[in-house]
Design goal:
Two copies of one chain form a homodimer. Chain A starts with 13 loop residues before the first helix and ends in an 8-residue tail after the last helix. In chain A, 66% of the residues lie in helices and 4% in strands. Chain A is mainly alpha-helical. In chain A, β2 (66-69) and β3 (73-76) form a beta hairpin. In chain A, α4 runs antiparallel to α9 (196-215). In chain A, strands 1-3-2 form a three-stranded antiparallel β-sheet. Chain A has two domains: 14-76, Arc Repressor Mutant, subunit A (Orthogonal Bundle); 81-221, GntR ligand-binding domain-like (Four Helix Bundle (Hemerythrin (Met), subunit A), Up-down Bundle), CATH 1.20.120. At the A-B interface, α3, α4 and α7 of A face α3, α4 and α7 of B. The first copy, chain A, binds a DNA duplex through α3.
Chain lengths: 223, 223
Amino acid sequence: MDDMTLEMPAHGAAGARIASELRDAILTGEQQPGARILQNDLADRHGASRLPVREALRMLEAEGLVTLVANTGAWVSRLSLVECEEMYQMRERLEPLLLRYNVPLLSDEVLDRLTVLADAMESSDDVEQFLRLDREFHLSCYSAAQTSVLGDTVLRLWNRTQHYRRAFTRVFRSEGDRSVHHEHQLLVSAIGGHDIDGAERILADHIRRTRLELARHPDVFDN
Amino acid sequence: MDDMTLEMPAHGAAGARIASELRDAILTGEQQPGARILQNDLADRHGASRLPVREALRMLEAEGLVTLVANTGAWVSRLSLVECEEMYQMRERLEPLLLRYNVPLLSDEVLDRLTVLADAMESSDDVEQFLRLDREFHLSCYSAAQTSVLGDTVLRLWNRTQHYRRAFTRVFRSEGDRSVHHEHQLLVSAIGGHDIDGAERILADHIRRTRLELARHPDVFDN
DNA sequence: TCCAACAGGATTGAATACAATATAAGCAAA
DNA sequence: TTTGCTTATATTGTATTCAATCCTGTTGGA
């Protein structure tokens, strides 16, 4: 043995590493929908050849974050209102199921954290911070159960809609609706009380209400 | 323009073509779960280099049909009973939604076809034929609406569980349970009567019952 | 002025060649 | 005989190179 640090081999992971960084860039909004992605650019920026870049693009295409056209190029994926509504409807069906898997397993520590997050969202006035808190809140609800596909599928739906959730939050928060926070509190207490059916209903309604609000702001999808 | 035949360029589609053939091989059962996939073999068999083969493997990995391990190799994906049950639970939630999208759009021709398929299944005694009919029956229910992710997600769940549905059908059909056929008939009439909520319920129950039967045959997942 | 055909350049797709890694067989020592 | 190490081979990962395709700016004509 050469070394005491257990090191993951740098070989065989170049594509995954590049994909991970590009994914982050898309989720933070640094890369906007519609933006062209050049293979050479990415390769140079990561000091690699175009080959692992192509693999990274394939991975992100599978996640729906990147759109590939043969012989033509890659772009950060756009979403129409109709597509976004479809994904929200999928979330309405899948997230309650995922929550059901998690409720019996969530620790008191996570439950406390949920309360902290819900409170922080109420007093937050920065859009980016709100988005981070909201994402952590919901994903924390799913952090206890080890699922093989359900968790991934839900996470992908979150990622694909991330940009539009940001744009929507900007225009919606100014309207001063408090019911989002109310629903978060209801959800925490239902989870705390191990009321699985109640938690499922609250979560489905929460996502549904957001979808309906989203439909009132189609301008978010212009351009 | 050189030619009147509008030809899709053979360039830029090698990976997709290889993926398509390997996918078929897995779905027909020609390639069994656990089977090793050598890049060189696939490349030689398709008269291509290993590069498009790697892209094909990445695509099938994203679909869950192939499992890749860095620096090691690729195998046809296995499923445990727990994973399979999870996918069936996802189907219980997603397929009713997909059906809801389709019911208002399904033509009389498709409806007639559904009746033919349901009848053919009742009188079929060959497992492979039953599987083909059942797959066509359910996927036909989803053939009218153009969804962007929901349809793909459901199709992938069908594909990932295909092998185990085959194995399960072998042992289950011998038990002579008729309720599957009854549910198919109920579903057709609910769809024909544009009873969306009823159709959703019947379909969810249908999938749920299959999941419970599946759990009674864990031996299907041995080895 | 507008449109179509035509280079030219830029970009992607695939093949070959080489490096890194993992598996397996053989060998030595306990 | 078994265990651990070593070496050989097979397989995968990446870089380099060349070919096919697409986009763009330009030029010629109507």
